[in-house]
Design brief:
4-stranded mixed β-sheet, two-stranded parallel ribbon, Thioredoxin-like_fold, 6 helices, about 45% helix, single chain
Amino acid sequence: MNRIVIIGTQPACPRCRLLTAVVSEKVKDMELDAEVRHMAYSSEEAVAIAKKAGLTPGTAKDVARILDRKVDLHDKEAERDLETLDLTGLEPHLQPLAQLMREVWILDHRLRFFENKAQEAGILMTPVLVVNGKILHQGSMPGLDKIGAWLSELL
């Protein structure tokens, strides 16, 4: 059985919740032999995963604190750019997540600076996607095509 872990906040923030939901739905749709679970970034297991990568698990707020920067979640540019998000080809089993995808897209846009600086700051930034012990993505919601490709490798 494949083991898929999403490391995130507890309770799960919108980004962590969406990544967990999308991966779970895709695993089900692809009929993969995989366990999907969400774990808090502060858990012993998450700390061990981050430590293997030479990092400490954390959030955008942790990156911001280390860089002495402010997190601005009210950036209007992200909302204007939402028009470029095209969900018309969204798979039917993911349609119920469309509104959450829009919210997460805005959050990811607003937190992109911190995602790009996370490793430099020594942080494995949530959300983190780990498949069979390998960190595949961190700091944002990866594209649906990337998630599909990673999961296809498990077939």
